[in-house]
Structures are given as C-alpha cells and as structure tokens.
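Internal ticket #5521
Category: modeling
Description: The requester needs a full-assembly model to guide mutagenesis choices. All entity lines are attached below as received. Residue total reported by intake: 556.
Assigned to: D.W.
Attached entities:
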Amino acid sequence: MRLTTEEQAIARGALGEAAGMAMRIVIEATEFLGGTQLVEISSAHIDGCLYHGDGGVEFAERLVSGDAKVRVPTTLNVGALDLLNPTRVRADDHRYDMARRLMAAYQKMGCRPTWTCAPYQAGHRPSSGDQVAWGESNAVAFVNSVLGARTNRYGDFLDICCALTGRAPLTGLHLPENRYATIIVDTNQLSESLRDTDVFYPVFGTWLGAEVGEEIAVIEGLSADTSEDRLKALGAAAAATGAVGLFHVVGITPEAPDLETALDRQKPARVISVTPPMIRAVRDRMSTTTEGRLDAVALGSPHFSLTEFSQLERLAASKHFRIPFYVCTGRGVLEELESQGRADELRQAGVEIVVDTCVVVTPILPEGGGVLMTNSGKFAHYTPANTGYEVVYGSLEDCVASAEAGRVVRNDILWG
Amino acid sequence: MSEIRGRTLIAGEAEGSLFKLAAPISFWGGVDPASGRVADPRHPDHGRIITGQVLAISTMVGSSSSSAIMLELLRNSTAPAALILGAVDAILPLGVIVAREMGHPTIPVVEISPRELANLPERGYVRVRKDGGIEVRSKK
C-alpha cells in the first residue's frame, strides 16, 4: 500500500479512535480489492442506517463513542422506521428501539437525515468526474451512470468508513479505464411505443441486470429525452437482479456521447439485440401471480419523485382506492407535497405516504401476506423473499386501476 | 483429493461440507441471518442452510446490505465455516472484517478464479488453510 502521511496518521488515530478504525477498514478493503492507493472523495451516501440486526447498531455506536464525524457531505439512505409516523412500522419494542438507535447514531456522526434511497433527487448531485463513496445499489447505479460521478458499489460499513476518513479504495469504477462498456445492448428491434412507456424501463433493467451481471453495457436506441425517472427505474432494477454499478446510454449519459466513446473505441465482447419476446418473457417472470385478488399496491422503489407524484395525481384524481395503496418517498419530497397542499388530497384518495423507509425493508404491509402490485422492478424482485407477499408487476396506470377495482387489472396490449 | 491455490482475503483455517451455490445470491433478502437459511424463494438453493458449510459463491448480486447480513451471521453463530469467492467483491469480506473489529468470531475468505470455482464438485468436503490453499475431497 502507498499511503500518504495524513492517511497513515489517521490510521494511527490522529483524528480519533473511530476515524482510526475506519481508516484501517478502508485500507484492508483496498488490499483485498487489489488496490495500492486511496482516493480522496467529495461526498458519501450511507446505506448502513437500515437495521438488519444488533451487530450493526453496536458498530455504529462504537464509532460514535470514538468521536466519529464525517469529513465530506454525507446523506443517509432509508432506515427501518417511518420516524414521522411511528406506528407505521410493525416492530416489537426491541426492534423499534434498535432501529431508532441506529438511525440516531448515524445522525450523530454528522450525516444529513435525508433517509432516502434517491438522494440524487433530494439535492445530493455530484458532478461528472467527482470521486465519491456511495452505498445503496440503485443510488450507485444512478450516480455513476446518470451523473457520471465515480464510485464502487459500497456496502454497509465501508460507506461510513469512507465518509469518516474522506477516502475510498482507488480501485474499480474510481479509475476511468475501468468505466468503458464491453457489451453493446441494442434496443432498436423493440417498438418505439414500448420504449416510450414508463412500464418498459423496470422490465428492461430486470433483463439487463440478469444478462450482464457486473459487466458494463452501453445501450443504444433510447430516446434522447428519456426522463431521469426512467433511468432511475432502469438502474434500480438492473442493480437488483445483477451487480450493475454502471451502464451507459448513447446520447443520454455523460460518458456515452456516442457509441465509440463509451467503448473506448474497442471492439465489444458481445453485442446483444433485445427482441420483443425476450422483454415479454422478463415481464412475465417479474410476477408470481397475474390475476384475481389483490391486497395492496406499493410504489416508490426507488423513492417516488415529485414528478412521479404528479403522474399519480393525474391518474388518481377523483378515484377512491379499495385496498391499501402505499407510496414510499423521501421526507424532502413529502415536505414539498405538504407545502403545496397536495399531500392531503392524495391521502383522501387512499394513498398512504411512507417516508424515511419502504415496504420491502421493514414490516409495513398488512400481516398475513397476500398479493402486492407494484410498478417498481426493485419491489417486484424483493417482495416475495422480504415480505412473504406474492407480487404482480404492472404500469402505474395498472396499479391505479387495480387499486380502484380491488383486483388485478393489467393492460396487456403493449406486450403483444 | 485436489488442491487449489486461492488468494487469501481474510486468513484463517476452517473445514466443512462444500456448499456451492447454484446461482448468484444477494445475502440481503436472500439469507435469513437468524437461521442461516437461503430465504429467497426464487433461488434454486431456497431452504438450504449455509451455517457451518464452506460456501462457494460465483458472484454476488443485488443489495450492498449483504455485508450487514454477513456481520449478523457471524454474531449469531449462523455463518458459513468459510467463504470461497469466484469474483472480487468487497461486500461479504467487509462484513467479516467488521465482525473481527467488533470482537466476534471470524471465518476465512478466499478468492479463486471463476473457472476454478465452476470446476469445484457439487458435493465434497473442504479444508481451507491459512495460506489460502483449498483442499477438496469428494468425501470426508
């Protein structure tokens, strides 16, 4: 390892015991990633504040007791509680207490209490080329791909250790030479009408993650005005079904002004042409059931943006939902909705706005299981294992129509 | 008996039955830290127990929260006996490092090539040595 004098001093405890432990963890992680140097970072996003067990709480509180303070602007991912609505989450006293202690510990280290998995839509937007250390797989995919900042897929613990030291292992996607695509994914065989619907993007992302794993793809054939929410949905699904930390889209993402640049003018290892039957098959696999009874709808993984709320408001106007209808979002977005007088109208239609957390990471859905409908590829992926619910994937329009009918309603026309 | 030279990520000695996961996994959402059971109903090894096994993993997928599940497995004594990884991944070894810093028992983590991992037998008994050597027997 080639460490600077400052890095060596921090490791020996110059900034306190916690920063010392954090630096030792960063150095060791660098070693097993095959790196020899650290890189200075300018921001961090922390995934470690979600309660998974008492071990994580003990670790965070150990850091706090060692005077831990983050050295770069740092946002927080979701926790296991809706802090603004404490009865929202079913938790026994122990779980509630530990989840709250964990969230408090990360705040004490100086992290901003954003509690969102879409920090990039809560004002935390690094610039192209910035070195950062981000956790939460969808946020990593977004910050690398859409914003062009540079991070590896940091997990719980290493993310906070990077924030406390202001350093990350100089490996992987921090290095420009490792950010070029090796696979071309051509979507031109798909109809333009399919590519111009929101419901396509989570399906495409689900396929992409399973197909490319941790390789870097450059995607051709998406419209130059593809919205940020569509790219968010694509990356989140791809990062759930594969280890996708970075993808490029020709003419849209900053490192792909054209195909040749994204490929570093090298021949790709593979060229894949996506066909309608491939996408249709993935769409079918994303549901474990497709008709009949429906018990709840959940939207907002990643957390719903203000734009997505506007779409929902248009569809839900004058409707009333027969089943629980959850929308997960950040408290920053809820504040905006409240200040514009929009939150109450949504609630009157039957929308339950969940903040600081989400329905697949903590018990919110009604007990006893059932069938959950979602427009999120990430929810579709994690719902069966994490909640015990069956899942059915549909568009936002399908979700609203189904919630009104109290049973699964899906428009199949698009899918042939 | 066959022997593979692995790269030691976290040194240690361990032995146990080989459990070669049939598909990539996310520990978060995929493994229950209380029971050590593969909890994802869509994973081909759903229902099997990883506790005490030498777990061979070709690649990790999904959430970066898998390090936290690794820490909980070690803290709860439901962890595998050792990890053999077929791809460089910081996520699981990190959970092991943090467990060590917190004073919990740890396990060896060794990296081998994807080809060597693919060639491991479906069943067998494995000893992981401190130097990263992996001894594979078809039976104990």
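Resolution: model delivered.
Comment from assignee: The longest helix of chain A spans residues 17-32.
Ticket closed.
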